[in-house]
Amino acid sequence: MKVLQDGSILSARGFQAGWSCCGIKSTPGAPDVALVVSERPAAAAAVFTRNRFAAAPVLYDRSILPGEELRAVVVNAGNANACTGPRGLEDARETAALAASLIGCGPAQVAVASTGIIGHPLPMERLRRGVEDAFDALSAEPHAARGAEKAIMTTDTRPKACAVEAEIDGKPFRIGGMAKGSGMIAPNMATMLAFLTTDARVPAELLRQMLASAAERTFNRVTVDGDSSTNDSVFLLANGESGATVPEAGAGREAFQEALLHVAGELARAIVRDGEGATKSIEVRVAGALTEEEAQLCARAIAESQLVKCAVGGGDPNWGRVVCAAGYSGAELQPELTRVDIGSVTVFRDGLPTGADAASELGGSDVLIRVHLGAGQAEGAVWTCDLTKEYVDINSMYHT
C-alpha cells in the first residue's frame, strides 16, 4: 500500500468535484456547497448517526442506501437541516432531484448531506444556486478537491483529506476521502461527515460490511467532547473504474480493507487533531482487559474525562484522574496490578504512584496515555484531544 502525496477524494479515478459559495455560511464569500460526482454509476454504502433526532438528509439517505447506481453526493455547510420537520425532508429530496437533473440521472441516485446550525430550514433559493454553480465547476483536477474540502467545513480550522493506492491481483486501485469535524465529536457511529471514493469494483452489500467495520475501528474511536451529532454520516462510493475487483474473501478483500482502514483512520485522527480549541492530540491505549469491549469502555471513559483532558491541556501529568476514570468505567480491573504510563514514563504501578515526573511527556502536540488493567489480554484504543478555554469560548457563542 502506498500513501499518495496530496491525496484527495479525487485520487480515485472516475470522480469529479465542484464547489460554490451561495451564502449559507455566515462568513461572506466562504465556500459552502460541495458536489462529488462519479462519472459512472457506483455502488454506494453509508453509516449514519444513531441520534434519535437524525437530520433530514440522514433520513433521506437511509431510504436509498446501500445501492448499486449512485452518481453523486451533494453537501452543504452552515445549515444542518435538522429538526426541520416535513419541510426538511422535502428540501433534502428537492436538493437531490436538482442535482440529478443537472447530472442526468434519477433522484434516488443522489445522496445529500448537511452540517451546521440545527433548527433552521434550508435557504433553498440560495442552495439551488449553489448546487448549479458547483455543477458548473465540476472538475477532476486537484483544485476541485481542495475547494470541496473547504466547502464542507464549519468550525474546522483546516481541511482533512487522505488517499492511498494498493493492488488486487496485480491491478492497482485507489481509495481517497475527505472529512469535516471539529466539535460535537463522540463516536456513536461516526461523529462528523466523511466522504470516501474508490475506483475498485465492490458490490454494495460487501461495501456496506467493510465500511461498517472500518468505521467501528476508526471514526467510532475518536471523541472530542462526548456529543454525538444529528447529522453524522460516512459515505463510500465504488465505481470500478480501475478494473480491480474486491472478492468476498481472501487476500483481495484484506488488501481493500487495509487500505480503507488507513484512509478512515487518518481522517478520524485528523478530526481529533483539529478539535475545537485543541492544542494536543491524545491517544489512550488500554491493555490487560477481559474483553475488547471492556478495553474500549475503559479507554473511552479516560478519553472523555473532562478532568483528564484539562490536565493534559495544562501540562499536568495527573495520573489520579486517569486511574479514577478507569475505576468508574465499568471495565473489570485489578487495582493492585494496574499500571499507567504517560508517554514513556510509568507514573502508577501495582496500585501505587511511582513518584516519577512525566511533565515533559506533555510538552508536545501528541500525548500517549497507556493503561494496563491486569485483568486479561484484550486491548483497545480511543483518540481524543485536550480541553481548553477556547473550546468554551467557541461553543458559548454557537447559536441554535
Number of helices: 10
Say how many strands there are. Answer: 15
- What is the CATH class name of the largest domain? Alpha Beta
The CATH architecture of the largest domain comes to: 4-Layer Sandwich
> Could you tell me the strand content as a percent range?
25-35%
Specify the overall morphology: globular
Q: What portion of residues is helical?
A: 25-40%
By CATH, the topology of the largest domain is: L-amino peptidase D-ALA esterase/amidase
Order of helices and strands: EEEHEHEHHEEEHEHEHHHEEEEEH
Q: Mind describing the biggest β-sheet? A: 9 strands, mixed
Low-confidence stretches: 184-191
Radius of gyration using CA atoms only = 22 Å
Q: Kindly report the name of the CATH homologous superfamily of the largest domain.
A: L-amino peptidase D-ALA esterase/amidase
User: Residue-averaged pLDDT, rounded?
Assistant: 92
In whole angstroms, the N-to-C terminal distance is: 43 Å
Domain count: the total is: 2
Give me the secondary-structure category. alpha+beta
